[in-house]
Specification:
Elements (H helix, E strand, L loop, with lengths): L4 E4 L31 H13 L5 E6 L9 H14 L5 E8 L6 H9 L3 E5 L4 H7 L9 H13 L4 E7 L7 H12 L3 E6 L43 H18 L5 E2 H10 L16 E4 L4 E3 L10 E4 L5 H5 L2 H12 L3 H4 L4 H4 L22 H23 L4 H8 L43
Parallel strand pairs: 1-2, 1-8, 2-3, 3-4, 4-5, 5-6, 6-7
Antiparallel strand pairs: 8-9, 9-10
């Protein structure tokens, strides 16, 4: 059995916020009537089986939701006790926690520091952008609590990254978002996740739509905000997403190489270096990043938590059996098998591999299906960064760092050092280290999924 990762949801889809774009809140209807907190028995069974199926090396327990801090500190203390109980000699265990930050306080942050958790903090930019979609259960804004959380994390020296959902609104203000994360939140490790949600996603799984209803690339139905659009009004425009990433890349290249690590750029650089992608959405195959729900149900992927993709319950079927099942193997192979001809012939196939299958609901000009909704934006990004990625890849192979390369190409580039907290010590390939920076949501290597 190949290595795999498990995203664990101790409270399932339960959350103290009511973010407009959250794709996971609607999952509550799947667990109607069940407790919203994982039982100690289920926690122990997941811990035992997850550890035993890996044997040695390093594994990561990736805690997500919903909002995982709703489980409470005692739950996580119990989780660490169980990890130590079942950890064999020589195994290293790491823990990551993806949170909206609104429930963090000094007690939480002391615990996270002492137990060396890597925290992912959800932040979508300045208040004028963050608070459009990220509100609490009463409709109140949450940006102030996120700033407070970032200060607490820094005060207690908790390693943290930021996870930013790129939606229809903040995609139009890339530099505002990036500079706010860098200068106000104090983020040194960032990840940008595109918000793509077809209408009816609450009930219809990816690839579950009738082919005759799929729009053709370039059609107004393949963009948000139009009368015929097949996506929600908050979904990012694919062209805007490409512009968003290229403008942030230029800012980063001019000012922050070696100081700020953007997982999206790290993933691209790995592709240009001929290394395996560190984000599953850009891998050739799927199937190595599964989800454990609070009731013990195991699903193929965080974006495929639908009855059709349930592999079983850990109380009834061994986790190792579900991971290596024919159902999961088919799920993993389908990513490459389902590529349309336009993707197979694309010069950026090596870097993209069709991106995540959940976003493949667009027709090719010839009528074929399976094209990614984000294709126009991804192409714009790859065309823009390609020459720089090649330059960096060649330089790193020659023993130089990406920072040295950027400085040599732009010796007069600015350095905005004032009001910037120092980095947290985690490096990536752009600092000359071979491993990618760890993204917020799932450890190393990351499945780049989950928007909280």
């Amino acid at each position: 059995m190949s290595a795999y990762q498990l995203m664990i949801k101790p409270c399932g889809p339960a959350c103290n916020l009511n973010c407009t774009y959250c794709y996971y809140l609607p999952k509550q209807r799947m667990f109607d009537g069940s407790a919203t907190r994982m039982s100690d028995l289920t926690l122990e069974e997941i811990t035992r089986q997850y550890i035993s199926s890996h044997g040695s090396g390093t594994i990561t327990f990736a805690w997500q939701g919903g909002e995982p801090t709703l489980a409470g500190l005692d739950f996580f203390r119990k989780a660490l006790e169980l990890q130590e109980k079942y950890r064999p000699p020589g195994m290293m265990i790491e823990n990551t926690l993806q949170t909206n930050g609104t429930l963090l306080d000094d007690r939480w942050c002391r615990f996270l520091h002492e137990e060396r958790f890597l925290v992912g903090l959800s932040a979508d930019g300045p208040p004028s952008l963050h608070d459009i979609y990220r509100v609490d259960r009463t409709g109140e804004p949450t940006s102030g609590k996120v700033v407070q959380a970032s200060r607490l994390l820094r005060r207690h020296r908790v390693e943290f990254n930021t996870l930013t959902v790129v939606d229809r609104e903040n995609a139009r203000h890339p530099l505002q978002v990036y500079r706010y994360l860098r200068n106000v939140i104090g983020s040194r490790h960032m990840q940008f996740i595109p918000c793509v949600e077809p209408k009816g996603f609450e009930r219809v799984p990816p690839q579950g739509r009738d082919a005759k209803d799929l729009p053709t690339i370039g059609d107004d139905a393949a963009r948000p905000g139009t009368e015929r659009s097949v996506v929600t009004e908050w979904s990012v425009d694919p062209v805007d997403y490409g512009s968003f990433m290229t403008m942030i890349f230029d800012e980063w290249l001019q000012k922050d190489v070696g100081r700020v690590f953007v997982i999206n750029f790290e993933v691209a650089l790995a592709s240009w270096m001929g290394l395996p992608p560190t984000a599953c959405s850009f891998a050739e195959h799927c199937g190595d990043a599964l989800v454990a729900e609070h009731d013990g149900s195991i699903y193929s992927c965080d974006h495929y938590v639908y009855p059709e993709h349930r592999l079983g319950r850990i109380q009834e079927v061994e986790l190792s059996e579900m991971v290596s099942s024919d159902q999961q193997a088919r799920f993993g192979r389908e990513k490459a098998r389902g590529l349309p001809a336009q993707c197979r012939e694309c010069e950026f196939l090596f870097a993209c591999h069709g991106e995540c299958p959940r976003n493949r609901f667009i027709r090719n000009p010839d009528g074929g299906t399976g094209l990614n909704y984000l294709c126009p934006g991804l192409r714009r990004f790859f065309i823009h960064v390609g020459p720089w990625m090649k330059l960096m890849a060649d330089g790193i192979r020659a023993g130089r760092t990406a920072e040295d390369i950027a400085r040599a190409q732009a010796p007069g580039r600015e350095r905005e050092r004032a009001d910037r907290p120092s980095g947290n010590g985690r490096g990536g390939m752009v600092s000359g280290h071979p491993r990618s920076c760890r993204p917020p949501e799932a450890g190393v290597p990351p499945p780049d999924q989950g928007r909280r």
